[in-house]
Every structure is written in structure tokens, then in C-alpha cells.
UniProtKB/TrEMBL annotation:
Full protein name: Cytosolic Fe-S cluster assembly factor NUBP1
Keyword terms of this UniProt record: 4Fe-4S, ATP-binding, Cytoplasm, Iron, Iron-sulfur, Metal-binding, Nucleotide-binding
PANTHER family the record matches: CYTOSOLIC FE-S CLUSTER ASSEMBLY FACTOR NUBP1, NUCLEOTIDE-BINDING PROTEIN NBP35 YEAST -RELATED
Superkingdom per UniProt: Eukaryota
Gene Ontology MF terms in the entry: 4 iron, 4 sulfur cluster binding; ATP binding; ATP-dependent FeS chaperone activity; metal ion binding
Main location: cytoplasm
Cellular component, GO annotation: cytosol; nucleus
PROSITE patterns noted in UniProt: MRP
Function: Component of the cytosolic iron-sulfur (Fe/S) protein assembly (CIA) machinery. Required for maturation of extramitochondrial Fe-S proteins. The NUBP1-NUBP2 heterotetramer forms a Fe-S scaffold complex, mediating the de novo assembly of an Fe-S cluster and its transfer to target apoproteins. Implicated in the regulation of centrosome duplication. Negatively regulates cilium formation and structure.
Subcellular location: Cytoplasm; Nucleus
InterPro entries, alphabetized: Mrp-like_CS, Mrp/NBP35_ATP-bd, P-loop_NTPase, YlxH/NBP35
Pfam families on file: ParA
Amino acid sequence: MKVLLRNASLGSGPAPCPERAQGWSAAPAAAERGGVGKSTFSALLAHGLAADETKQVALLDIDLCGPSIPKIMGLEGEQVHQSGSGWSPVYVEENLGVMSVGFLLSSPDDAVIWRGPKKNGLIKQFLRDVDWGEVDYLIVDTPPGTSDEHLSIVQYLSASRIDGAVIITTPQEVSLQDVRKEINFCRKVKLPIIGVVENMSGFVCPKCKNESQIFPPTTGGAEKMCQNLSVSLLGKVPLDPQIGKSCDSGQSFLAEAPESPATLSYRKIIQRIQEYCEQHHLQEEKIM
């Protein structure tokens, strides 16, 4: 689950975090199952939104037991710095800040073995004590499932007008079965769903351009699931070996392979998310 918040003021004092976010958008990136590409999508969404240099983007990694965002964003080995106004995010670009528990570990191989209360405390600290400043978008990368981290982030941001969640899946039924649970979770906690992204949706041969189904959609894939559950399908992203290489090297796949079919799919999905957020804010302004 990716949570997206837009136009926010964060980390500016000791008050609890929800009261500090005014007029912004947040989106959690979510998936019930691990390994479907949540963190990769979160990172590329952050890069895509930050391509507009007039926008300030924050990426918060709350996958506390498996923080991969530092590696994907090329920030492995970075540490959190304390300033007079709190912790400073680690910046990829001037308008793209990142925070992760990975920056607090002495080694990327260190295991985080925490129970719920300690996890909840760190998530609150990330929202309250990090000097995010004025941000236009906050992207929250969540762990698999519907556990403490998901409940905490929804609770702490409940007063911040979350734009919604982006849910990531792959085409096969074993993944879709778990995604249905994630959709039910969002509905139970009244978290809007921006839409679903189907990752690893076929493979386009770079030479002959033929498409092969690596993970066959045996029950109709995300498209049929979204129709049945009345959820928007934001798009389908084909496999590209360069995505894994870019993640390992900490580079933006969007910049490394601008002509890839996967890049074109990502850009369309990012545009749809931006349009959703803008429409969501217009509706809120009318209500207010």
C-alpha cells in the first residue's frame, strides 16, 4: 500500500503529527503480499512527481523490518542528521527528501526485531520529529499485509486528508487473493483507494517486441478483479530486467530507460495519480 498526501506541512514542533498537516496529500503504497514491487513503485512515483522542480516530494519508508528504499534510492550508508528543528531527511534531489529506518541502522544487514508499540512509536516520530518542511506530496511505502504499520499510519494521518492508497499486485491469483484483503482493509478504515497497479504484467521482448505472459492471469488478472470490486485499475507495468539493475545501482529507472515500455506505463500511471489528487482536492475545496 502506498499512501499519498499532497500539500503538507510536517515536522514543525512537538505537537502530534496529524494536526500539522494542512491541505496536503498522502498516499500509502500497499500490497498484502511481499515481492510484488511496492517499494520500487514508491521510489519511481517519488522520482516521477519530483520531476516537476516546483513540487516538494517526501518519501517515507515505514517497512521497518525490511527497509529497501535506501538501496533503491541510492542512499545506502546515509545517516540521519539532527538539526535544531528535528531530524533532517536525506535528500536525493533538492525537492525529494527520504526517511527510513535504514538510516538508523549501523549496517544494512542489521535485523529490526521490534514489537508493535516500538514500531508505532517510530512511525509517529518520523511524522512528528522529521523536519520535512512544506511538502506537496508525501508518499508512504508500507510493508506487506495489514498490520501495525498500516493501522498506525492511517490513524496518525487521519486528520490530514489522505488522498488515498495505491495498491500493487501481480497478475496471478495467489497475489490477487491477498490484494482483495488489502482492499477490504482500506474500506474498513475508510481509506480512499486511488487505484490498483498490476506489476510484472507480461514481458515485451526488446528485439522483436512480442509480449509474453510470464505470470499468466489465470483468473483475469487485476483488470477483472477491479471490475468486480469497483476499483480503478491505474495501469499495467510489463517486466523489464533494467528495473532490477536500476534498483540495485540506486538509479531512477525512469531516467535510465526512458523509452522502455515499462517507463511509458509508469509515466501514464503517475499522471493518473496526479490527476486523481488534483480532482480530490477540488472536491474538498467545494465541500469546505
